[in-house]
Amino acid sequence: MSNTFGTDILIQAEDPMKAAKFYVKELGFKITDKTSNMVSLHGKNINLFIERGPTLGPVLEVTVKNVQKAKANLMKKRCKIIKDEPDFPRCYIKDPYGLIYNLSE
Fold this sequence. Notes:
By secondary structure, this protein is an alpha+beta fold. It has helices at 16-27, 67-75, and strands at 3-13, 30-34, 38-42, 47-52, 59-64, 80-85, 90-94, 100-104. The protein has a single domain, classed as Roll (2,3-Dihydroxybiphenyl 1,2-Dioxygenase, domain 1), CATH 3.10.180. 20% of the residues lie in helices and 47% in strands. The longest helix is centred in the N-terminal third of the chain and has 12 residues, at 16-27. The protein is elongated and about 40 Å long.
């Protein structure tokens, strides 16, 4: 699976703005964009995105050439689909060791 790792980390929280305020105050992030469903933060070396939703834990952003092929390959290796959004296209995958990643093109 060829892929590219970026400087982006995504988490989900029931109240994205409340979570964002914590990261601004406690870790020095700056808010760069906000909508009703997502807050974007910038840190010195990473970007943090807080999406409205049930808490999944940190999600590593991975860019792949083809989400469907990458998803099929990972499913063969005991990974589980947490959330699939084929229209985007992106797919949240949890590997056998607990790491969650968002595959996107």
